[in-house]
Design goal:
The protein is mostly helical.
Length: 156
């Protein structure tokens, strides 16, 4: 087994979960995960080891997602009616409001954008999010809460 095959075997499921947290769609997450590993294989010689392999792969996945997302929304002129609810989590249940939240997230600065996406749309714990950023679990919780407040403000 080659070294890259071992990386693929070790990290495929985690990168897939990360992509799923971004896309909320299994098919799209699979595509992004496959594209991520293809890009990683092409540029493995550029990996300098300053971060964990998992973090590097997730960065590739995130960039791949945002590239695909930009292409998808360029042709769409959707203007859904915002639905009002007290709970942001309840609002995520509807596709229209989820799209509105994605639009707000798109314009939100990092790390708020990414932390919120990882937590709200994915299966990552605050501990995992903190680790991904090289921060603490508390940092991830606070960052998520601040992002959530910004989104609520924008939705009103």
């Amino acid at each position: 087994m080659t070294e890259f095959e071992e990386v693929y075997r070790l990290y495929f499921q985690d990168v897939y979960k990360y992509a799923l947290s971004l896309t909320r769609d299994e098919h799209t997450a699979e595509e992004i995960t496959q594209e991520t590993f293809f890009k990683a294989l092409r540029s493995i010689d550029q990996f300098d080891g300053r971060c964990k392999v998992y973090v590097w792969l997730c960065q590739i996945a995130k960039n791949t997602y945002f590239t695909q997302y930009q292409r998808a929304i360029k042709g769409e002129q959707l203007s859904p009616e915002p639905k009002h609810s007290d709970s942001l989590e309840e609002r995520l249940e509807t596709q229209e409001t989820a799209f509105e939240i994605h639009k707000i997230l798109h314009d939100m600065s990092d790390p708020f954008k990414e932390v919120f996406s990882l937590r709200a749309f994915g299966e990552l714990s605050f501990k995992q999010i903190g680790e991904l950023f090289g921060k603490t679990e508390s940092w991830a919780r606070v960052t998520y809460h601040r992002a959530k407040m910004k989104i609520k403000e924008e939705l009103q």
